[in-house]
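User: Last request for today: this protein with zinc ion, please.
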Amino acid sequence: MILGIDTSLGTAVAVVEDDGVVRAEISSDDPLGHAEVIGSLLERALGEAALGPIGATSAPDAVAVTRVAVGMGPGPFTGLRVGIAAARAFALGRGIPVVPVVSHDAVALDVLLRDPFADVPRFGVVTDARRREFAYTVYDGLDDDGLPVRATEPALIPRDGIDERLAELGAQRRDAHAVSAAMIALVAARALAAGREIAPHDALYLRSPDVTPSAGPKRVGT
Amino acid sequence: MSEPLVLGIETSCDETGIGIVRGRTLLSNTIASSMDEHARYGGVVPEVAARAHLEALQPSIEAALAEAGVSLHDLDAVAVTSGPGLAGALMVGIGAAKALAVSLGKPLYAVNHLVGHIAADTLDTDAGPLEYPTVALLVSGGHTSLLLVRDLTTDVELLGETMDDAAGEAFDKVARILGLPYPGGPEIDRAAASGDPDAIRFPRGLSRASDLAKHRYDFSFSGLKTAVARWIEQREAAGEDFSAEDVAASFREAVVDVLVTKALAACVDHDVPRLLLGGGVIANRRLREVALARAAEQGVTVRIPPLSLCTDNGAMIAALASELIMSGRRPSTLAFGADSTLPVTEIQVAQEREEDAA
Ligand SMILES: [Zn+2]
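Assistant: Here's the final one, the structure of the complex with zinc ion:
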């Protein structure tokens, strides 16, 4: 079973079986408060997962988490780190691997699975990056492994430039205000099934720390 | 539980600290510092510190377990700093600690960083048990606090704290004025070694009679920093030479004087002949010398934990949780966050209510 965690926007935790059946999915949409809620969401998700797949009537198999899938962003840094730190620590506690996932891939998979028979045209997942910027990634359907195809890698853009950029790329705009942890886990499940590594192991900050080196002492006047 | 095995996680500033203790026995004190990354900015940059914590946590936990020769499954509890400190930095440790506790099914203790500095003393095997009450002076780049400790786990009172810069920050800023690199403490010390501490009479913040009424135990170092800058500018404007060594020594003397004077005043006022020193600035030899000499004159006994336990570290967090456990305290719930201004009276955060305890 895969534990999915994402804190790139809200805080989301899910437990998904290796074949994609969702055992538990809980989230908090609070754009702050990731550190406050992450522990309780993990505890609740594992508790609900023990009851079996959502809607199941027969006695469930025990919860045996074998991987932790985590959204590596892009997303506002302070919250994003909470999920990555939690995923790594949970995995360390169980002696299991972490599977990094691009958070936008989870949104894209959600979009593409909503109507599996529709021919979804090229689209850009757009999320808040604070400081009057958006983070965006452009997608072109699913590949043979059932994974969303990135036409561009995640990048930042000033908010008033997003529509022009997406028009240049011929992509429809899809704003996302939440990332599903079940979709994070499902992306990981598909990547694992295909034996592929599809995200970096470091957080997708996309922005250097906002600091300017000291320009020497300021005069204080006399 | 007689001697709980506790892993402590500390990420309140620029040190990623993982400590493992069994009761009052130190098994590991693993510290990864991002200090070098802050050097070019002349001070701790919160975002740089938080990024470094995220990268350092897992390898530090693994290194601490290896050093202690224990496995995560042997632990009786996980402990973490809830505050005070840099919010974004604290959150990394809290996220990791909560997930580790849930993953292992172990209790979690969320504790106060400042009280942790006092708890570091319990790990000092050469020192014998801490006697109460004691005054504690905690001085670092992040805080300058004077506390009255009646009991480590139940009763810590804030007597005073800095109203502006922490003492360690003042060292960094004055080092920069003198063109010395970061961190400023050791640099100022080196320059001061050949300087005259009485050459320039820099102001002692909040030490005038009019200030003492309201701020008897509070500190202020921002005026001192400005006084140093102004003094140098005046010399430079007049085209006069001056000795940077004298400036460093005189500045350091002003800081040390005000710290020790206020700490010993607290000892006298509260009739407490014991003073505990903690925090990274305790590494400053002049501060230790002056504190020891003046305390001896007043019949005050000074305790100083080993320096590796004075700077921010995870062992002190584990040590505090260990004391809480040994005194029968219930663990924290999972419902707490980072509290950058957590008051020192909150020794443990979000303790489970009795009726909810399993
Ligand atoms: Zn400290």
